[in-house]
């Protein structure tokens, strides 16, 4: 066996710059600038490896020999001491990379892609409600498919849409952790889906009034309250409740309401605003709502902010209706299909839906405003009970 412990403390102090062997693969490298570094040479799986053991100023000869012996023992077990040291470092620090911290960091990185910078909390809510209570305090490196399966199993069939969102966003967070350099199982989500199987839940459409029933309901909204005015404008414009509830007077110019792009669902990067043509009836509703204006909002709540979607839903529920506010978009779309010959592109654009492929949209740079203006005028006439064949013909 090659000699070991060849160096002495005094000899090290007196030695000139150069590399000195202590035996057993332990070396000291003294530099010309006065610094010195311990390193260990070992052979692992037929390949020579060198690993630093620290500077002489911090690691004594005795400590260097102890470190060398410990790492030689690792080699004798057939392991790479450098990789083992890296693993130990990860294990020692992984507790600071809890899933809840990764989720928060992933959310912050993606806020710009979310509507309203994600302030409504919809991106986070499936994780906050169904994932973080069980997995939030677990190091992200320890999470596997069984953890995910056990966490989402209770809602996998009963709340399938929520479970799907939670699963997909958890996958995004795991990819974010990997991008940070953490060791995670990027296939854990797909494995969990395989363990859970297909969902049995079938999504239900939002209950809606038939388009034939809309005029009767619309004409009953005659009390002039904030809730009823909001419902009237919701029906007349066929927009989603979010943009309507946050409508401000400065968004109206003549007979066009311009909804900011970031308020439109599905417009991921909010690159374009959405123009809504307003019928005479819609303008009359807006004029009546201005008397309630507070902080520029036309539909303020009793306390602060704006009315909620639940406010309109509860009004319809109190009137014994199963239909909900969002359902009026379906009422309008069905009316377009059954009572008019309007093109699909015009009808879908009225709903703010993206129409055509990306190539088609690149060449067709129009929002069909004038055609939509005629169609919305005919819809308004239908709602107030004054629809005529001439208006329907004009709309098509």
UniProtKB/TrEMBL annotation:
PANTHER family: PROPHAGE INTEGRASE (PTHR30629), PROPHAGE INTEGRASE INTS-RELATED (PTHR30629:SF2). Keywords: DNA integration, DNA recombination, DNA-binding. It comes from the Bacteria. The keyword NADP does not apply. Pfam families: Arm-DNA-bind_3, Phage_int_M, Phage_integrase. This is Integrase. SUPFAM superfamilies: DNA breaking-rejoining enzymes (SSF56349).
């Amino acid at each position: 066996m090659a000699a070991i412990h060849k160096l002495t403390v005094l000899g090290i102090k007196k030695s000139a710059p150069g590399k000195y062997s202590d035996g057993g693969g332990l070396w000291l490298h003294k530099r010309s600038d006065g610094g010195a570094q311990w390193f260990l040479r070992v052979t692992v799986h037929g390949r020579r490896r060198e690993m630093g053991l620290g500077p002489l100023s911090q690691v004594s000869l005795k400590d260097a020999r102890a470190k060398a012996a410990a790492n030689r023992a690792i080699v004798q077990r057939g392991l790479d001491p450098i990789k083992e040291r890296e693993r130990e470092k990860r294990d020692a620090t992984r507790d600071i990379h809890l899933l809840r911290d990764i989720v928060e960091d992933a959310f912050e990185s993606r806020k710009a892609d979310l509507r309203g910078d994600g302030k409504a909390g919809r991106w986070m809510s499936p994780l906050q409600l169904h994932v973080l209570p069980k997995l939030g305090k677990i190091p992200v490196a320890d999470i596997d498919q069984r953890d995910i399966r056990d966490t989402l199993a209770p809602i996998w069939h009963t709340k399938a849409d929520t479970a799907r969102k939670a699963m997909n966003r958890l996958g995004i967070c795991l990819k974010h952790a990997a991008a940070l350099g953490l060791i995670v199982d990027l296939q854990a989500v797909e494995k969990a889906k395989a363990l859970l199987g297909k969902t049995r839940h079938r999504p239900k459409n939002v209950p809606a009034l038939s388009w034939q029933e809309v005029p009767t309901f619309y004409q009953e909204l005659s009390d002039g309250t904030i809730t009823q005015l909001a419902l009237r404008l919701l029906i007349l414009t066929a927009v989603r409740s979010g943009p309507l509830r946050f409508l401000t007077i400065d968004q109206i110019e003549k007979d066009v309401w311009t909804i900011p792009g970031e308020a439109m669902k599905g417009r991921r990067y909010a690159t374009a605003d959405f123009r809504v043509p307003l019928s005479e009836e819609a303008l009359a509703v807006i004029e009546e709502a201005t008397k309630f204006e507070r902080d520029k909002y036309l539909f303020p709540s009793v306390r602060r902010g704006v009315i909620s979607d639940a406010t309109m839903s509860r009004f319809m529920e109190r009137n014994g209706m199963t239909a909900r506010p969002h359902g009026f978009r379906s009422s309008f779309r069905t009316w377009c299909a059954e009572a008019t010959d309007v093109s699909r592109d015009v009808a879908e654009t009225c709903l703010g839906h993206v129409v055509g492929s990306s190539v088609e949209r690149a060449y067709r740079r129009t929002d069909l405003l004038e055609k939509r203006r005629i169609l919305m005028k005919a819809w308004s006439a239908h709602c107030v009970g004054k629809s005529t064949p001439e208006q329907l013909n004009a709309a098509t």
